[in-house]
Amino acid sequence: MAQLWGGRFTKETDQLVYNFNASITFDQKFYREDMEGSMAHVKMLEAVGILTEEERDAILAGIEGILNDVENGTLEITSEYEDIHSFVEATLIDRIGDAGKKLHTGRSRNDQVALDMRLYTRKEIENLKELVKDLLIVLHRLMKEHVDTYMPGFTHLQKAQPITLAHHFGAYMEMFKRDYDRLCDIYQRMNYCPLGSGALAGTTYPLDREMIAKLLGFEGPTLNSMDSVSDRDYVIELLSAMSTIMMHLSRFSEEIIIWNSNEYRFVELDDAYSTGSSIMPQKKNPDIAELVRGKTGRVYGALMQILTTMKGIPLAYNKDMQEDKEFTFDAIDTVKGCLALFTGMIDTMTVNKDVMENSAKNGFTNATDAADYLVNHGVPFRDAHGIVGQLVLYCINKNISLDDMTLEEYKAISPVFEEDIYDAISLKTCVEKRETIGAPSKASMEQVIALNEAYMKRISE
């Protein structure tokens, strides 16, 4: 059992205790970050006179050799070591001798693991941002393609008013723009370097923390050593942001599942993103959308786990905080996979425009506009509301739409109606009259699309 702390103890740790305490099985995931942090630390130690140039060069060469061997598969990270820090240090000493024993000067595993987790989280935030951006690119394209694709808008899953598919996709565009911006905010807030904080009270060595921060691409050093080693707010923030991303993906997935059903047929999913049934040959199942919807709970669980872990921890570092990794790693991998697959699914699906338009016509989504027509002809709104309610009931009984009624049938319910009612309740009129910013008219949508174009350009620079 390779440990960094044996001097105080007079007998071996029980194997079960050792296994329970060890983190090598999961913290090896940030082996690269651990070695990058160590190399920056060594450069700083030489700069302040704690290491000689020869010692610095020997340690750097040793760590680079370990990194290369791990990545090309000739060196395995095994459970012989308690954690990734032990693996790197023990392997380094084995390879270069006593110089390797100076690697840990002025450093604790507390600030070392805090650095590793920040470096890993920071990298994964960038990966998540790219995947959200890929989804935004697809949504932006779909909005431009479907400004004239009419469909029903819903409230309570009931057909409400006519909109366009561009307008519907635009709602998700706004959600994922907020998600992207949240990731940017988290990155900016957590981009400070904890290395040099020691176990909790800093160190007596003359470390240059500004130099370490600069070498590792941070804005600067953290300002309180106790907070530095015990802060996991950035993990909580990231898991919260990822939970929100998954909530948005799950809502969208639910709609795709409904739209793909035999009853709706608004869209058809590409074969590459669907599966069949082992017993029912006619089935084409939206499994990707269903799995994205299902995996949302997995990410929520990770957020609740770290919140629960952190809620009772006094300052500064406590071993409980080792629990910040496994669930977070899994949640990050889950969200990345869901984003990539969901983006591919909507990028390749076929939109059945005629079905969407007919659904809007047959769902009385233009009833509000019929009421507005009466109001514009002098009928009080409350009376107009009742008249249109009679129209809808009449159409239901005859199994027709408002567009299918004859003028005589209209006048039998209210003499106010004239020939121009048909233009007033056409889907095109219903949509195009709604011209305020954020509404579904073509003019409004093109204005929003132009703003999105500028947004996409900014985040791509």
How do you describe this structure in short?
The chain is mainly alpha-helical.
What does this 3D model show about the protein?
- By secondary structure, the chain is mainly alpha-helical.
- It contains 19 helices and four strands.
- The protein has helices spanning 15-21, 24-27, 31-47, 53-71, 84-96, 109-145, 165-190, 209-215, 225-230, 233-259, 287-310, 326-348, 353-362, 367-376, 381-398, 407-413, 421-424, 427-432, 442-460; strands at 150-155, 158-164, 267-268, 350-351.
- A two-stranded antiparallel ribbon has the order 1-2. A two-stranded antiparallel sheet has the order 3-4.
- A hairpin with a 2-residue loop joins strand 1 and strand 2.
- Helix 3 (31-47) packs antiparallel against helix 4 (53-71) and helix 6 (109-145) runs parallel beside helix 12 (326-348).
- It is elongated and about 100 Å long.
- The mean pLDDT is 93.
